[in-house]
Amino acid sequence: MPTKREELQWLESAYREFRTLVDGIDEASFEEKWLDGRWGVREIVAHIAGWLREMGAGLERLSRGERPAPEGVDWSDFQRWNDLFAQEAQGKSKTEVLRELDDEVARFTGYAAQLPEERFAPGKTANKIVQGAGTGHFHTHTAMIRGWLEHGR
Q: Does the reported pTM lie above 0.85?
């Protein structure tokens, strides 16, 4: 069973790999819409940052013994949330969007680090959030962007 420390190390590693890839993309390519003609790297970065913001707040609520989602909030309509996060990034420079991502990664990681070790057992909510919104999310989108860079341009 992975420890909390290992989960957080994997998150950091996945983030660094993603960030290094995105750092190497010029501003014009960052703006290009290549995913379903609506999204590009900007929207992907904003989407990850948005989920980290939402799920980080969920981790913070877990640390207080609350449910991760606030009362009346439904995270299950992924596309609605994704569209909202992408819309929030419109008109922002690559630097601004990446700064927001950096801030959300730091906040998310900080909230995760505050949780006790047992919250990171397989199947536990905190573990699912860290792997889903964090580590797995970075791996998925790193592969997606890398595929576009290598084959789709």
A: yes
For residues 76 and 9, give the distance between their C-alpha atoms in angstroms, rounded to a whole number. 28
Q: At what angle do helices 94-114 and 41-63 cross, to 10 degrees?
A: 20
Q: How far apart are the first and last CA of the chain?
A: 40
Mean residue pLDDT across the chain: 94
- Tell me the CATH number at 29: 1.20.120.450
Cα angle 47, 71, 108; round to 5? 40
Q: How far apart are CA 31 and CA 54, in angstroms?
A: 24
Domain around 47: 4-152
Give the chain's domain count. 1
